[in-house]
Amino acid sequence: MKPYLWLIMLTTALVLTDCSNNNHRSDAYGSFEAVEVTVSAEANGKIFTLNIAEGQTLVTDSVVGTIDSGDLEFKKAQIIAQREVAAIRIVNIQSQIDVQLQQRTNLLNDRKRVQKLLKDGAATTKQADDINANLELLDKQIAATKTQSLAVQKELAVYDKQIEQIDDNIRKCRIVNPINGTVLNKYAEAGELTAYGKPLYNIADLSTMELRVYVSGDQLPEVRLGRPVNVIIDRDKKTNRTLNGTVSWISNTAEFTPKTIQTKAERVNLVYAVKVKVVNDGALKIGMPGEVTFITDSK
After folding, report:
1. Has residue 12 got a pLDDT over 60?
2. What is the C-alpha to C-alpha distance for residues 37 and 206, in angstroms, rounded to an integer?
């Protein structure tokens, strides 16, 4: 074979290889992430129990630990005792009102009898005036006693609110897991002292991961919310896996390409962040690299 034929064949092979590589080149690169929730203490005190471990799967609203609520229970018992005393006071006040109302009824009957006697001339005007004066005085006493009853009722309402608040604080001594997910990090142990707002652990739902990638401005027409894409991850050193993904978010502002994504020459380009949701079959991990190929009509 002539030497120039070898040159033609070698050139053709290189062109075909280059075309093949371009056809399989991904459209965007990034890493997987998940929405992490940090669970913090909602009370001050000693951690009695914290039954979690890193890597453990938890369900929503499960109680995973408790914080000492002894002081709150003691304070609640004190307020309940004070409320019982106030409740006894209001019973006594109501008894006084019942007696005064009976006295008023008796005075009204006496006034009717005196008015009859006064018509017959068997009673004096002073007797009628005295009864009317006693009625006025008794009405004022009844009004004052009812005011005392109203004040005690307000006091009982204050005690009820205090008990309700303490009950809420006691509930906050239970450490309740907020979401379905996997424990990523544990920051506290049983027996330690904690404070309001101090992180105890963080958790993330790993059943669905998000691949954050960056696309250039000329790629944006190919990106649509809800559009399916092909997600490529490493199977081993030589082969890849392709997963189904869906575009879930597109940034509306451009930014410089993150340093960890592209070469130094490409990092100065303006790109748009895009999130792709991928169902995790257990192979995806936070921080794991991934690639995206957009599915378009042309492809």
Report:
1. no
2. 12
The pTM assigned to this predicted structure is 0.72
The CB density around residue 72, as the number of other CB atoms within 10 Å, is 20
Burial of residue 118, with CB atoms counted within 10 A of its CB: 0-12 exposed, 13-18 middle, 19 or more buried: middle
Q: How far apart are CA 29 and CA 290, in angstroms?
A: 6
* pLDDT digit string, tens, across residues 270-292: 889 999 999 999 999 999 999 99
Beta sheet of 63-67, edge-to-edge order? 174-176, 63-67, 45-50, 193-194
H or E element: which one contains 91?
helix 70-120
The separation between CA 275 and the C-alpha centre of its own chain, rounded to angstroms, equals: 24
Written as six digits, the tokens of 190 are 């049983």
**C-beta of residue 58 within 8 angstroms of C-beta of residue 45:** no
**Pairwise CA distance, residues 153 & 156, whole Å:** 5
